Structures are given as C-alpha cells and as structure tokens.
Amino acid sequence: MSGEKSIPIEDLLKHPEVQKVTSNINQELVERKKYAPPVCKVFTYPYTVLQDNSRFRFVIDNETKKQLPSIIDNKVQNITGADDLKESLKEKYCKKRNIGIVFSGGPAPGGHNVIAGIYDAAKKANSENKIYGFFLGPDGILENEAVELTDSLVDTYRNLGGFTMIKTGRTKIDTKEKMELSKETCKKLELDALVIVGGDDSNTNAAFLAQEMFEDGIQVIGVPKTIDGDIQVKDIEGNILCAISFGFHTAARAFANAISNLCTDSSSDVKYWHICKVMGRVASHLALEVALQTHANMTLIGEDLADYIDKNRLEKARKKGLTDYSAYGITLRHLSRMVCDGIVKRAAVGKNYGVIVIPEGILEFVDEIQIFIIKLNTIIAEYNETHDTDFHLDFPLLEDKLEYLRRQARLSREDNSFSIWNTRDDDLFNDIPAFFQEGLLIERDSHGNFQFSLVETDKVIMGLVKDYLNILKEKGIYKLGINNFSYGKALTKDGLDPDYFGPILFRNYDKKEKFFLFKESIISKKTLKQIMVKEGAMQKTDKVPLSIEQIYKKSVANFKTQVHFYGYDGRGNDPTRFDCVYTYNLGLTVFSLIASGATGQMAAIKNLEMDFSRWEPIGIPIASLMHLEERKGKLSLVLEKSVVDVNSIAFQVVKSFRDKWLAAAPCEDNYRRPGPIRFTGKSEEDRPITLVLNALAKQS
Hints:
Elements lengths: L8 H6 L1 H7 L4 H8 L12 E7 L8 H6 L8 E7 L4 H8 L3 E6 L7 H15 L4 E5 L3 H5 L3 E3 L2 H6 L19 H13 L4 E6 L1 H13 L6 E6 L8 E2 L5 E3 L5 H22 L3 E6 L6 H10 L3 E2 L2 H5 L4 H9 L12 H17 L5 E6 L7 H21 L3 H4 L3 H17 L8 H8 L3 H7 L16 H18 L7 E2 H10 L4 H8 L9 E2 L8 H10 L11 H10 L5 E6 L1 H4 L5 H19 L5 E6 L9 E6 L4 E6 L2 E6 L9 H8 L1 H5 L26 H6 L1 H4 L1
Helix pairs in contact: 6-27, 11-12, 15-21, 18-19
C-alpha cells in the first residue's frame, strides 16, 4: 500500500462518504418521491359527479347479457367537477368508506401511483376512509391477506416502478368457490368497493365480481394495466375511449434505450446483427413503438404479416386456372426470406451488421404455427378434462408427447370424425426442430394461453434465416460490398491497375459505384483463380495477387448474431413522467367512480393521445367490451385484446420509413437515440410516439 495507513473496515463503513454512496437513497429517488403529478381539471374541484353518456355505443354479445345482467346496461360515464353538491349527494360522496385494491398479473410501471391517486382522493373526501391492499394478487383476496395502507407506506412508493408495495399474482377468481371466498373476505373487511388493477383477464374478473357482488352493494372497478398496450377501447364508430393501458410507455422507452445502445454498438463494431425480441404476446404495439423510438433496421409487425399475400404464387396459380389459398398469410419460410433480403441488401453496401426487432408473439401471426397452437391447445384442454389430470405431468418428456400425438393421428385414419390431429399435421410437426416442438408443447398458462415468452421465437426465425443465408452464400448472392476507394488503394499499392481487374472481378464495376460486388460465380479462392485465368488476367501456374486475395476475403460475409430479450426489465422500470401522471389520474378517476356509486366500470382517461389539458377522466362499462373467445378449449367471455391497426397513422409511418431505416445504401444509418428515461428533465416526449402520430387523425 506504499506506506499508506490502512483504515479499519469498521471505521470505513461509518465514513459519511461511504454511507452516502452505498445508501439505497439517491437524488433521483428523492426527486421522484417528491414529484406531485398534475391533475385533470375536474379533480381541482371539491367534488366530482358522474354523467351517463349514451353517445358511445358498443356491439353487445348475447352471452354477456345472460351472464352479466346487472351491469350490462352500464353506460360510458363522464366525470365532471362540482364546487358544491346537494346535501344528500355530498353526504354520499363524503361518507366513510373501506376500499380494497389488488394488483393482478405482471407488474407495470405506474401501479403505485394508481394506489396513491385512490388514497389521496379518498382521504381528501373523508379522513376516516380506509384503503386496504391485498397481498400477492387475487390470492390475497381469497386468503384475506391484506394490509391497511398508511401515509408512510404510500409515500414510500410514489412515482416508483413495480408492484412492490403489495406485490402481485396471477390467480384467477373463476370458480363459484373462489367467488364465495372473495365475497366473504370483502364482507369481513366491510369493503364498500374493490379495485382490480390488471390486464384483459383481470378486468374480465372485475366484471364477473361486479355481477356477483351487485346484490351485496360492493362496487367493483377495473383499471387497465398491461405493458403490451393491448387494452385499447373504441366504440362502434371508432371513437377512442382508452388509447393505451398504463405501463406501455415506460416499457417501450426502457426497451428502446437498450436497443438504441445496440444500434450504436452494431454500427461501431460492424460485425454483429442484434436480434431483439420484445414482449407482446398477442399484439405488436411495443415493437411498433420501439421502431419509432430507435429506427432499428428491421422491425417485424405481426399484424402486418397476417395480411400478407404472396402475389407471385397467386399469379402462377391463376395461369393454371387455379386459386392457391396457401398464398394468403405469411409462412415461416417466406418470413425468413424477407429477413434475409434485408440482410443481403445491407451486406452489399458493406453493412454486415444491424438490429432486428421481433415481437415475442410473432409466430401467432404465421398461419401454420397458429393452426398448430389452436389444435394443440384443444388437444391438451380436452385431455385434461377427459382424464381429470394434467397432460404435462402424464407426458413429461417430449418423446412421450410426440407419441401421444402419433396415436391421435392414427385415430384420425380409423375414424373420420376424429380430425383435430391428422397424419398431415403429424408429418408437418415432425419436420419442425425438436426445440421448437418442445416450445409448442410447453405447459399453457393459468388462462390456457400459449406462453410465447417461453419459446425461443428468435431462434426459430433466425435458424431459418441462417440456413437460407448459407444457401445464398453458396450461390454467390450473399456477399459483402467492397468499398470503391479501398479497392483502388489496395490494388494501386500492389502495382495493379484497378480498372483492368475491376470488370473481371465485379458484377457492378463502375467508378460511380461506391461499393463493388464480386461476381456470383466467385465463391471461393479456387473460383476466384479460375475466372482470372479464364479472363486472361493470369496463368494457371501463377498465384492470385495478394491484394486481390485480401480484397476477396473481405467480401466473404459471416453472419454473426447476438440475441436479446426485453420484457421483465422494462416492466420493472421506474415510470416515465407520462405514466406517473396517467396512473395518478387513473387513481383519482377510480375514487370518483366509487364515490358516485358506479360498479362494473373500467377507469380510463379519454383523449390520452392529446395534450394533457384535453384529458377527460371517464368510466367505461367492462361488460360492453367482452366477447366469446376460445380458452382452454372452450368458449369463454373475456375482454377483447386490441392489436396493431395496420391502417393507423403510426403503422403507416413506420411502413413508409422501412427502406430508409434499413439503410441498404452507401449512407449513414438512420438510428435514433431516444436516451434513458429522464424523469427529472424536460426533453422526454410527453406521450408515446404512436399516440402522437395517431392523434393526427383527430386533427384531420
């Protein structure tokens, strides 16, 4: 230690500087907790009231009318501010209440501010109001595990990410027994209202709980939460009532920052393709926003692929007087060809690197895979119901599962009525790599959904891409372009005439070209020498000039990838300013709905895509949004998920910029640097870019 006197560790740990830099508290955290989100104008009044709005109409499912009769006639409700109320209404608004709140499903940035908004509004209306948080999601309701929230606890988590305050869980309250346990818990705590913060399945739960507890006078309010952004509400005429669920902006920004860093790395090291899989099981909203945030070279949008039509195959069939129905919808093979095309084009201008964004649910938009998933979901659900056991426990190994499917295929030959899994399905399935077979047969989630996040989507697609690139390499198509200047310099240094050898070596030799491509027939040193001998540029006994050999080596394209998954990191991020403001106002909206007696409603903010001054808190009838959907092999009422609208302005903008962002030209890449989430700064956009763009439709 060069004579320095060492400090005892006990004293070192007491040193103020050591304590400061190792503390859990930093300046960013202090400023986050102190931040007071602005509130919508209606919440600046002492009271709020609800007004039914019959302007917004929905297509009501007949099954919903049967199962949710008590809340099926709910209307969209506008929240307005009031300086004063009639004594009876004031008494109702300010009466002492007990309110329970539960987080359901995966975390989403901003959840704590929903609690803070409810808490602040409730305490403002009546300081004796009590807010209870149920631990570990719906299990907390079933097991009556709850804690009364206090100023100290709520203040600790203001503007912070995660659901750490009361945790979360994925249990679904979907049986008569669970409903009874839930009612029992609510009665024991003397709850006036229960607030469920969650995604489509959780808000579906909220609707059924609202129906079940209607006669008991216990109100149930849902709050739209999902980073996937797949809870969006429009009425029958296309009027937007809820533009996006909370947590989406934060997750997209977190992913975008990390992926932007990879864009920088890729264009610096110039040797890797970064394959970035982002969350989005059913919808590609996150991938679309990330594309707008980063300008990644390629972004696959599942909803776009679903509309794909192979015009060449249709034309070939038409000439034969036939219709090729398989030309409608993308196949895995063609999807891999599309990706390869972009890679080859960039390589031709010397860019054998780049960034590809893939939504985790992309395979659901591929016809052949979607059919497999639907069939396997049905087979697994029917097996579980018929045998009163679990398919995955009875067939733990992949070979066991495959043998069961083979038996189903044999049954289809013996019995024509048995057609879920036939021999053609079995043959096609056996052509799929084992790791992907295993992925398609993984255990479904608690709702019977296929778990795309557990499947190596990127590996499936990129495996096909690599195979095809090798074919293109052998055909002499996948090559690295050679810089005009570098070529001339290398040959001149070796005493050779670039203009003499250029037409012999390259298929596009022209001094105006910035990058030259070796002829397709030159795929090895051997073929390089053969063509030079054939063109009279050298004798068979001569060696290929060193400078030409080195130039050729530079043209050989090696496809190297780095794979990344973005999901849990983004959903655990501290919220953006947008999500802080959004969720706090959602909390205030929840209390306004409760205080005016609403139930079976979803708290929402209308005009979310517009400037904050135009935000309008509303209640949306959950029952009106539900429809029949296949779950666990059966039709069930669920909240409909919203996918990317390929006619939206946001998608059309991304589509228009695809070639520019691919940058398959001798130019700089067009990467955008969104930067980190800057809570304390003012340079961050005030809403998702997709919302900014789609808002233009309202202005036109």
